[in-house]
Give the backbone structure.
Amino acid sequence: MNDHTKDPAAVKSGAKYKCYLFFKRMFDILSSGFALLLFSWLFLILALAVKLSDGGTVFYRHKRVGKNGKDIFIPKFRSMKRNADKLEDMLTPEQLEQYRREYKIDNDPRVTKVGHFLRKTSLDELPQLWSIFKGDLSVVGPRPLMREEAEAKYGEDVKKLLSVKPGLIGWWAANGRSNCTYESGERQKLELYYVDHCSLGLDIKIVFKTIGSVLRGDGAQ
């Protein structure tokens, strides 16, 4: 019997899984540390571009729920206009309804011109390298969610979802992002598939699929 047919809880308590987590953490530290040094010049350029776009803050810290329900704060380069959290003031009723359903909006009017570029290229997520380095995130894992989003969309499976560390990239993101929605159930299915089957081989597959998706611009908004 292979690991994919075993009880996930039993697999995650085994020595093989613990070894996988150790090497995964070592990879997270080394890769994020190297990337922070390598792209330090890009951080400065992007920070300046965001600041000059409208004079607002450079970074935005999102409160999310991490592994085992821990509150974490995820930094991103700010891609939205100031006061974007005031949803009722900035969205139409139809857009507000979509946000409450999917926690995202097609052609979001709150996104700045610089923000569109950052999101299309996924450069807005570069500051999350620091979250990986300090251990709040992993390179690969389910998307970090708001607590109410996780509870509303995953229901009785929320504990399973939060049994692994969220990641910068993941199985859902690598398979189309915006094209796999909560409403269809595909997003939940893909994220929970990763939780049940996470392994070195799957992580490597996700890295290469994500590189291809980013280069093609698939599903990014």
Q: What stands out?
A: The two ends are 41 Å apart (CA to CA).
